[in-house]
Specification:
123 residues; alpha+beta; Ribosomal Protein L22, Chain A; three-stranded antiparallel sheet; 3 helices; 3 strands; elongated
Length: 123
């Protein structure tokens, strides 16, 4: 029997206009970090897509706060991964009447937050 852990919160951002390969670099950077540190790091990351990732993290935070009444200070990024979404196909004219394809990929960001319980020591 599989038990579900109820301390996790998820946010999915579908159809982000960037390739999964570029997004994976940014997502690997915030895995395992506390939420406030992850947002700060995304703000100063020199990648265009970091803005969309921070939007998704903020969405997950508000899901945790409003739907599950979690404490924001105890949240951390448990998982952050990217998957493929649609691909727009375009064509570019080439020499001698030919055409070559251009693929414009979209991605899907999934961010899972978890609440860390504080261990209280009694003496």
């Amino acid at each position: 029997m599989v038990q579900k852990n109820n301390t996790t919160v998820k946010a999915i951002n579908k159809n982000v206009r960037s390739s999964p390969r570029k997004l994976a670099l940014v997502l690997n950077y915030i895995k395992g970090r506390k939420v406030d540190l992850a947002l700060r790091d995304l703000e100063f990351t020199r990648k265009r897509i970091a803005k969309d990732v921070s939007k998704t993290v903020k969405s997950a935070i508000s899901n945790a706060e409003n739907n599950h009444q979690y404490d924001i200070d105890n949240l951390f990024v448990k998982e952050a991964y990217v998957g493929k979404s649609i691909v727009m196909k375009r064509f570019r004219p080439r020499a001698k009447g030919r055409a070559s394809p251009i693929k414009k990929p979209f991605s899907r960001i999934t961010i899972i937050l978890e609440e860390k319980k504080e261990k209280k020591e009694s003496k």
